[in-house]
Write a structure and sequence with these properties.
The structure holds two protein chains of two kinds. Chain A is mostly beta strands. Helices cover about 10% and strands about 50% of the residues of chain A. Chain A contains four helices and 16 strands. A 16-stranded antiparallel beta barrel of chain A has the order 1-2-3-4-5-6-7-8-9-10-11-12-13-14-15-16. Chain B is α/β, with parallel strands linked by helices. The longest helix of chain B has 27 residues. Chain B has five helices and five strands; from the N terminus they run αβαβααβαββ. A five-stranded mixed sheet of chain B has the order 3-2-4-1-5. The termini of chain B are far apart. Classes of the chains: A mainly beta, B alpha/beta. The interface between A and B is large, with 72 and 68 residues.
Amino acid sequence: MRCIFLMLNNSRLLVCFFCILFSIQVNALTDKEQGLEWNALSLEEYKQPWMDDIQFHGFLSQGLFHSSGYNVHGKSKDNIATGLTEIGLNMSYQATDTLSFSAQGLYRRAGAQTGDAGALSLDFAFFDYALLGHSKGQIGIRGGRIKNPWGLYNSTRDVSFTRPTILLPLVYFERSRALLLSMDGGQFYTDYHTDWGDIFFKMNVGVTASGDTELLYAITNNTDAQGRLESSPSFVTQVKYEIQGGKYVLAMSYADLVSVYQPFNLLDTYTGLNMQINSLLLSAQYNGEKFSLEAEYNTQWNDFSGIPHILPVRRVISEHWYIQAGYRILDNVQMIFRYDSAVLSMNDRNGLNFAAATGMPKHGVYTRDIVMGLRWDITAHWMLRGEYHRMQGYSMVTAMDNLDLSLRPAKDWDIYALQISYRF
Amino acid sequence: MKLKRTILFIRQYLCVLVTSIGIGVSFSCSATEVILNEFSVQYVKPSDNLSAIFTLQRRYWVNGEKIHVFVLSDESPLHKRFVKEKLHLFPYQIRRIWNRQIYTGTGQPPFTVSSVAEMIEKVKHTKNAIGYINTREGVDENALYFFNAQ
């Protein structure tokens, strides 16, 4: 028996010995490449990367909307609207290591804003020249039509896959989307990567596509306005700090946008209108494996001048913010909850002055939105999602889809939305 | 009494055996490996931040030439494991970063290969290439180099 115990004792040692030997072997394997002599390929055997210098990508999404109270992307009120259709196709060409070209065409059908036939636009088209590229970052310039770096989502706002919900948070202004969409001009950008995080800086200078009708209605609060706004040189800038590859994101975006009203005719009452918008957006985001949390806060100074007979108050300060939480039930299924708030004037949050001045209900000056959504990424290319919005107020409702707004505007209302998306 | 001692001993023995197997398995369980070729390997330092390379935030080797990144599809279990293990990111995060670059025109995503064999082939034969595989065991190491992170 003693002999057996001795053997067992030894075998314990033996097992340990084998394990240690095995781990040493594995470690040796891990370190051995330094000492190996390679049968290196000759230079001619290396190819240039076949055709990955020209790439095509795109996306397609279709939404269905049903609502009470107001129309959203078409005639959705007590009806089903096949509103939002978004199709994009882009091409990028890496001409040299430092020079590249990119362009994206966008087809968008979003209710009355684009009409039933939808609208085609050039979403972006620019050259990108890297002035300096090194192991810690890069510095470069872009010229042409460039997406504006605004908050967490503006630059890809029409790509369903990149949005947290079908309808973006209110701070991304559906009505005045044209203001911040893109810039015709130039961009200076720089990234710097350190052990304690990555810093990204972008600055766009140029003119925006402010000739949009819904934007004009939003500014004048009058669907009879017939002229158009024309952008003067403006800028949008953003500094972003990311830790652990975007697990934590902090960003500050600032926009200075100037537009001048081009009258429809000599009798146009808005003749002389100048608009200057200064807007500050603070963003914070946490992306965990299961849980994610984000919030954005925006204060916007809207200065109007030139038409004191219509707009006696020269400066209106508006405020938008939201807080949003997400939880991944599975790797590819995520629940989203959001509380979203927008007020047109911080001096008249509850609309008392507005109601007294216009005779309209107080809830015309704010919008509050409680969102619950579910997103299912069926594959890397297909995504399906649905969401419910409990809305209060109508300040962010699009005028073109709701021309009969003044009859009896509802205070509490709902939106149900469903969307399917494809990307490649 | 003898029986008790025997059982006790067997229990001890089993305990050591299980622990040892555990250690053995943890060592033998192949970790994902970052692969390079003889061109790219000379520009890589053990302290280099892999996630900056694979998220395309770092696009150039120290010689100023563009890095060519190869990946497997999003659905591939190896891709998911690699992203977590070596980049310390969640797979949805890296897809989000690539999407932002693709759809703002500010970057071309990595080239997607369909198999580990293709990955090895492409990395071997593309200048300035970097990719990954599931294990270095059984790989023909001719002209293939591994990256050892610090």
